[in-house]
Amino acid sequence: MSQNLDSAATEGSVTARRDGEVLRLTLNRPDQRNALSHAMIESFIDALTDAVVDDSLRAVHIAGAGSDFCAGADWVAANSGTGERPRAGALVRRTPYLAHRLIELVHTIQLPVVCSVQGWAVGLGCNLALAADFTVASADATFWEPFVTRGFTPDSGASWLLPRLIGLTRAKEMLLLGEKVSSTEAAEWGLIHRAVDRRELDSASEHLLTRLAGGPTVAIGLAKQAIHYAAQATLTEAMTQELFSLELSCRTVDFKEGLAAFQERRTPKFRGR
């Protein structure tokens, strides 16, 4: 059953739908290329925050309605009001609780996140796709970080995500030169998981979601956490973190099922517990 998380139709909406053990989040503002209004970002954050504590969920899917994934934050609407300009420091006060919080949740939630991208993925929309665990993009998709070309500096994790995914040189091409990157090139660089024909986008995403939602959810979440921790840690620190994750995962029902399946030479049937 669908739930409209934003009643202001003119500002777009984020639709959350439970599909078995998968939470499907759809950006629904196709006439504006799914540019994210403040209300949409707040709704998105609320949905992910609820998912964090929902033990019945085992995967998250993010997609955009219409021909594009997301044209980024709606800066035009945010800066075209007729009232007084915000106080100095407004961005510093607000952004950590909006765009930055959204990226942080997608990146750190202990559920696997799959993102389906078609058309444009720009700015915040691009970073949203890069923060997911697996992003599948159609052949017509374009990834673009236009911050500097519009006269301001990157936000929403661009300066952190890009160098780690594709290295400094390519990150500078995207962030300092504003170079647009096709889905094929993005896949070759390691920016995204896979580029496919537009007709195969849904099936490729569903294949991933089926595998991930059928896996040992606790172990997947802990492994995701360990990978991110290790990116900033020494080898010794990373292995210590692995030990804590191992201790927790070995206490799960799915660990016992994995061992039993191995001994019985059959495919395990994980329950996400």
From TrEMBL:
Task: Output the superkingdom of the source species.
Answer: Bacteria
State the organism of origin.
Answer: Mycobacterium noviomagense
InterPro entries cross-referenced by the UniProt entry: ClpP/crotonase-like_dom_sf (IPR029045), Enoyl-CoA_hydra/iso (IPR001753), Enoyl-CoA_hydra_C (IPR014748)
UniProt cross-references to Gene3D superfamilies, sorted A to Z:
2-enoyl-CoA Hydratase, Chain A, domain 1, Lyase 2-enoyl-coa Hydratase, Chain A, domain 2
Extract one GO molecular function annotation from the record: catalytic activity
Looking at the UniProt entry, the stretches that span the membrane are none
Q: Which Pfam families does this UniProt record tie to the protein? A: ECH_1 (PF00378)
Q: Which protein family is it in?
A: Belongs to the enoyl-CoA hydratase/isomerase family.
The protein depicted here goes by the name: Enoyl-CoA hydratase
